[in-house]
Each structure stands twice: as structure tokens, then as C-alpha cells.
Amino acid sequence: MERIIKKSNKFHLSNSTTDLLATAISWLCMGLFLYTAYAKIVDHTRFLRGLESVSLIGGAALLISFAVPAIEVVVAFLLLIPRTLRIGLYTFIGVMTTFTIYIGIAMIWEKKLPCHCGGAIEKLSWAQHLWFNVGFIAVAMFALLLVNQKRLLKIKK
């Protein structure tokens, strides 16, 4: 009897590994947003003053100072609930991409670059902050890929 072995070039993880990785990454992203939101809320005045000092957004500083931590908390809860995990990952990626674009633009046009992100993240240089964000975006995209793959497998069955 001849045996035919089909080689697959696709990377495949077990369901439990996929779930574990997606959950771990979503919790990491959730932790980041809860941590930074908490720091911005606890020291709101400092966060607001930092935003006001950036000419690109100074006029909308008050609105941004309330909106950003609120958005971070909402996205964190979306990442926590399994039913809303996909939308949470998409939203996390969108928000982080927006923050990253803002950092890039600020690095080009702003003379003085105050960081007002909150907590230990403020210790990063702007270039380090940019790469930090890109890393989180990449990890969240990987989690989204895992979640979408699992969803497609469920649909096929």
C-alpha cells in the first residue's frame, strides 16, 4: 500500500494554544490600556497640561484629556469579554495606530515633545515609544489573526 503524505505549508496551532495565546495577548493589551488610563485619570491635571503644551492638539486638549482614558477603558473591557474580543482587538489596533501616527507627526513638527502617557511609559524616549506602540500593534494583529482563524474554522465546520 502506498501512502500519500500531504505537506502543509500553513502554520497551525491547536485550539487550546490558539485560545491561550489570544487570551494572553488580549490581557496584555487590556493591561496596557488600563494602566495608562489609570495614570491619566489619577493625575488628570498633569495629563491635561501636557496635552495643552502640544501645538498640534492644544486647542482640543480638554476634550482629549477625557476622551483618551475613557476610550482606553472601553477598549480594555471589550478585550476582556470573549464575545467582544474581535472588536476589542480591532479597536485596540486602531487606537494604537492613531497614537503611533500622532507620535510620528509630533516627532517631525513639534519643537518640545512632552510625554503625557502616564506611568512608567513616560520614561521612554519618543523613538522608543514609537517602537513600543508598533510592537503592541504587531502583537495585537497576531492575536486578531488567531481569533479570525479560529472563527473561520468554526464557520467551515
From TrEMBL:
InterPro entries xref list: Methylamine_util_MauE
UniProt KW Transmembrane helix keyword: yes
Its membrane topology: Multi-pass membrane protein
Residue ranges constituting the Methylamine utilisation protein MauE domain according to the UniProt record: 20-145
Main location: membrane
Keyword hit for Cytoplasm: no
Sorted UniProt keywords: Membrane, Transmembrane, Transmembrane helix
A Pfam family recorded for this sequence: MauE
Organism from which the protein derives: Mucilaginibacter aquariorum
Lineage: Bacteria, Pseudomonadati, Bacteroidota, Sphingobacteriia, Sphingobacteriales
Protein's UniProt name: Methylamine utilisation protein MauE domain-containing protein
Bilayer-crossing regions: 20-38, 58-80, 87-109, 129-147
Subcellular location: Membrane
